[in-house]
Amino acid sequence: xxxxxxxxxxxxxxxxxxxxxxxxxxxxxxxxxxxxxxxxxxxxxxxxxxxxxxxxxxxxxxxxxxxxxxxxxxxxxxxxxxxxxxxxxxxxxxxxxxxxxxxxxxxxxxxxxxxxxxxxxxxxxxxxxxxxxxxxxxxxxxxxxxxxxxxxxxxxxxxxxxxxxxxxxxxxxxxxxxxxxxxxxxxxxxxxxxxxxxxxxxxxxxxxxxxxxxxxxxxxxxxxxxxxxxxxxxxxxxxxxxxxxxxxxxxxxxxxxxxxxxxxxxxxxxxxxxxxxxxxxxxxxxxxxxxxxxxxxxxxxxxxxxxxxxxxxxxxxxxxx
Amino acid sequence: xxxxxxxxxxxxxxxxxxxxxxxxxxxxxxxxxxxxxxxxxxxxxxxxxxxxxxxxxxxxxxxxxxxxxxxxxxxxxxxxxxxxxxxxxxxxxxxxxxxxxxxxxxxxxxxxxxxxxxxxxxxxxxxxxxxxxxxxxxxxxxxxxxxxxxxxxxxxxxxxxxxxxxxxxxxxxxxxxxxxxxxxxxxxxxxxxxxxxxxxxxxxxxxxxxxxxxxxxxxxxxxxxxxxxxxxxxxxxxxxxxxxxxxxxxxxxxxxxxxxxxxxxxxxxxxxxxxxxxxxxxxxxxxxxxxxxxxxxxxxxxxxxxxxxxxxxxxxxxxxxxxxxxxxxxxxxxxxxxxxxxxxxxxxxxxxxxxxxxxxxxxxxxxxxxxxxxxxxxxxxx
Lengths: 321, 382
Description:
The structure holds 2 protein chains of 2 kinds. By secondary structure, chain A is mostly helical. Chain A has helices spanning 2-31, 38-56, 63-91, 96-118, 144-148, 154-171, 174-184, 186-191, 196-221, 236-246, 251-269, 275-280, 284-302; strands at residues 123-124, 132-134, 150-152, 227-228. In chain A, helix 7 crosses helix 9 (196-221). By secondary structure, chain B is mainly α. Chain B contains 15 helices and 2 strands. In chain B, 50% of the residues are buried. Classes of the chains: A mainly alpha, B mainly alpha. Chains A and B meet through helix 4, helix 10 and helix 13 of A and helix 6, helix 11 and helix 13 of B.
């Protein structure tokens, strides 16, 4: 049982960054823009979140309050950075893959440049302790308390709240309906008076916001409150896109897919604590590449019945209606 | 207007967006320099632009691997495939070359040729898998080849660390490639010039011939233009996709060999590999090189030399870090994605002038139908 507790407690903080970024990818693609820049946006958010943490820490503020402020900073940073994608993809009708790649290259270079010049390091190192040992009251519930309310981070609960909000926004509001229309058939949306360009801007900016949130959630849940220009977010932005495809562009399924990937990763990292896996003596490298191999396998099986938004990646041109 | 005049015009129109992207990218880089350390910005920017001239041998040395990854990305892009996996293919090729160099003793010059062939095989395999996924299952090659960047990097680093012949644990890097396996140097005496650069340039010319003078190249470009039309015309797109990715992978893989086997006097630069679980940047620089070179093999040679040139300047700029060049390159790629827009801007203005400003916005006019997309492409050879 201890092993199960351990795995669940450690899976959730890893699943949340994937969930948030994948939801971000979903909002962009549902509006019709492919957000390949998620990797860069995540690191951008993580960097600003860590920067805020770095400067707030000496004030003696409560750690969880710092976390909330830093998350807000990360979300704003991500949304602002995503404007670069929105402008290129929507106004300039540029190739979204190229723009995304450029944006992914820019952030690690900027983070390294700034960190090396001003912090004498490859990233931002903070000392704030975001870790929650046990949540009062809830942590005392037998089993459930052990599973979900001990040895965790605040980001886990924020992630779940964002998931619920995303589901409602996408399926229960007028905005969500319009957004989905722009991703499926922008010409039809336009013909009933929806401003496709504005909706796509909204989709991309929500995407950037969630990407930034996911980035700082990664810095908290995986990097222990730090960020680094060399390792960045270790391909989580790209994994998030795979999670999104696996989740068929639907919030709840994306959550399950994120849990699946995070669980694989966590098993890989804790082989030594799981007796029967440890006895197999499989080289560690196999576990390192497991999430990426799993992505390939999952994509191979889900590709044939893909429910991708029909107009994703295609610039909308009013003239070609 | 004679055909020669037309050729020059087409060429100018082709490279104009790249030149514009470079100019805007450099300006943004300068702005970042100004923001980071205003006092040194002007002199630092000057260093970036001029220092390369004093180190032309080093410029070519570092240009060689990115010519190869650039050719890899550019070749696949011609077919409409975005080979973001050049990094993994490069790393795989480099590993295979290294393995052959250390583990298979052979007489010179067979040995370095075998190393290069091993690299080609390794890179080709790493390109083939995303190609097969794309061709048979229609899975976006961008995601699969990124996954293979990570898979390749982890496997290579692990294999290197577990090989006692190659790896020196105390230095956390491999031994230097034995002298008799290194590529033949040009000029001798610790010069950074070697035969690798010549191999890369010859391959670029060869690719140019394949792309523009063979049936395979024609099919490839046709598929890149319009895959449905190409399929309708009876071209086997599945076979072509896999073949393209194999060739792209082989090119990037050979780039890895040409880098690791190249002798130079640059400290810690060549002939050794550090397994630090970081994805090779040469693959991503290859994307920049390919885009700047309009995916044209000859253009790629020039753009690789340019990128290498400013990188050398970046390592020398006082008060800055070499990452400033990566910032500039990222800006350049970003703006080179606007190429179509720039071309349309130039052409559109001219066309509107011709039409006497009579063309209404947003409607397809006969004028537009007369000027097919093909005409915009400089690479359509007479």
